[in-house]
């Protein structure tokens, strides 16, 4: 059973608790401590173009959409 998105597999394995336990033991993705996959946009989940200043955690696209509503006057 190979898939890129492990959450799809977990939905399928809910009916089979023994196989789900084995899958979680051996195949669940590890928590990232550093690297590109650690920083994701809190709004859309994109990993590139990340704005983490002031604890925002937005990608540059989402930041441009919400900048005025969160109080930024000049954001270019």
Write a structural description:
It is a single chain. Strands 1-2 form a two-stranded antiparallel ribbon. It has 2 domains: 1-30, no CATH class; 33-76, Ribosomal Protein S14/S29 (30s Ribosomal Protein S14, Chain N), CATH 4.10.830.10. The chain has helices at residues 6-13, 17-26, 60-66, and strands at 50-51, 58-59. β1 (50-51) and β2 (58-59) form a beta hairpin. The mean pLDDT is 82. The termini are far apart. The chain is mostly helical and 76 residues long. The chain has 3 helices and 2 strands. Helices cover 33% and strands 5% of the residues.
Number of helices: 3
* Helix proportion: 25-40%
Task: Please give the largest β-sheet.
Answer: 2 strands, antiparallel
- Named CATH architecture of the largest domain: Irregular
What does the average pLDDT come to? 82
Q: Gist?
A:
The chain is mainly alpha-helical and 76 residues long.
Characteristic key phrases:
76 residues, mainly alpha, 3 helices
Topology:
Layout: H1 6-13, H2 17-26, E1 50-51, E2 58-59, H3 60-66
